[in-house]
Write a structure and sequence with these properties.
With 402 residues, the protein is α+β, with helices and mostly antiparallel strands. It contains 13 helices and 15 strands. The chain has a nine-stranded antiparallel beta sheet with strand order 5-4-3-15-14-13-12-11-10, sandwiched between helices. It has a two-stranded antiparallel sheet with strand order 1-2. It has a two-stranded antiparallel ribbon with strand order 6-9. The radius of gyration is 22 Å and the shape is globular.
Length: 402
């Protein structure tokens, strides 16, 4: 009898341990690891890279199977990062804005191929916010051909930001639609045109049509007082305080703050066609422009390499794409700003995704090890993204946030 009870107790212990370990995390290569193994590896890597704080999530078949928080959201007060800590998304904002744009297309409120100049009631330089910056742009006959599709696929011809131009004005550097060059200004101009067309600020539109329906209660295009209790401050490579994110005006190029929990919910809804119809999502992830550049930044760099073409690197409507990988097509978006380095990638066939949010200038040091170990991603174009340790340690200069 004692032996039976001992065996029963041992069985219960094994079941308890298995339940505590959570579901297995399946990788792209068919291997798997436990949640405990993922926790331990993430903590070890992030600590080694001196990342202040991080939030991570993995999806499998489009459903969140693992979340993890590491480090501090506020070093001075020793407050821990959580999976619900409001964190600056930086340019991951652009990809979420794109979903909103495609929702407008789907509901017949926007035409991707209507020129921006025709969407606006007045020429761009007739608006106070653009009077000085757009004066040269509107005189360029090519401006009349620039469309939302070009803005979203980063093929408009604009530089990343006018502030990086010698005269601080907008210029088209090539014929629209002929090559890829990342442009935050393109997204902000598109935002302005949409706001003029619909008569409502972007933060209200996106809350009403994306965030609220998906219960993304910790996400906003502008600061809300409700974020204050669990909000991540931003830190430099040496652990020095940089800033607190308190965006008062919405910017499609990068004002969103969010959490890994909310982004996991967002990707789940996207992959299960609860935001867009399947045909709309397929169109969004259809390549619009092939990418041959050696690096994403500087944006107007002309050097090329074979790294991108090997994995079918391209841009769709608002998302980076990998069209030729052993694991099927993938879509991705990065976010990079002072004290915020983020990345997400999803493989459509398996529904395996990973989300990485950090409040540290050291965040990108951990990206490649985390992606390779946790989901078996060996196809992200590390050199193009400047995610190689050499590029990061050399502090390769980005020409603005991405």
């Amino acid at each position: 009898m004692k032996k039976k009870f001992a065996l029963l107790a041992f069985g219960i212990l094994l079941l308890s341990l298995a339940a505590h370990a959570g579901p297995a995390i399946h990788r792209l290569d068919g291997k798997s690891l436990t949640a405990a193994q993922a926790d331990a590896f993430a903590d070890t890597e992030l600590k080694a890279d001196k990342v202040m704080g991080a939030q991570l999530a993995i999806l499998d078949r489009g459903q969140v199977v693992w979340t993890h928080a590491y480090g501090l959201r506020d070093a001075a007060r020793n407050l821990p990062m959580t999976v619900n800590t409001n964190t600056w998304a930086a340019s991951i904002t652009k990809a979420v804005f794109d979903i909103f744009v495609m929702h407008l297309v789907e509901t017949h409120r926007l035409d991707l191929d209507e020129p921006i100049a025709r969407m606006l009631p007045k020429p761009l330089d007739h608006y106070a916010d653009y009077k000085d910056r757009a004066s040269e742009l509107v005189r360029d006959p090519r401006w009349a051909r620039v469309t939302p599709r070009m803005m979203l696929s980063h093929s408009s011809g604009l530089a990343n930001f006018a502030g990086l131009e010698p005269d601080k004005k907008f210029h088209l550097h090539f014929d629209p639609g002929t090559r890829f060059a990342y442009s935050g200004d393109g997204l902000n101009i598109l935002q302005f045109a949409i706001e003029q067309k619909l008569g409502t600020p972007l933060d209200i539109l996106m809350k009403r049509e994306i965030f609220a329906p998906l219960s993304m209660t910790r996400t906003g295009m502008v600061w809300r007082e409700g974020f204050r209790a669990d909000n991540a401050l931003r830190y430099g490579a040496n652990g020095n305080f940089l800033a607190a994110t308190r965006r008062r005006a919405p910017r499609a190029a990068g004002s969103m703050a969010t959490t890994v929990t909310d982004l996991g919910r967002f990707l789940d809804a996207l992959l299960h066609d609860r935001i867009l119809q399947p045909e709309t999502r397929a169109a969004m992830f259809s390549p619009q422009i092939a990418i041959h550049s050696a690096h994403e930044f500087p944006t107007l760099e002309t050097a090329s390499s074979n790294e991108g073409p090997r994995v079918g690197l391209a841009y769709g409507i608002g998302w980076g794409l990998l069209t030729k990988t052993p694991y099927g097509p993938a879509f991705f978006k990065e976010g990079h700003g002072d004290g915020a380095e983020n990345y997400l990638i999803c493989f459509e066939k398996s529904g395996i995704c990973i989300i990485l949010l950090t409040n540290s200038d050291n965040g990108e040091l951990a990206f490649r090890p985390l992606l390779e170990k946790l989901i078996g991603d060996t196809v992200t174009p590390w050199e193009w993204e400047s995610y190689t340790r050499k590029a990061i340690m050399q502090n390769e200069e980005h020409t603005g946030p991405k």
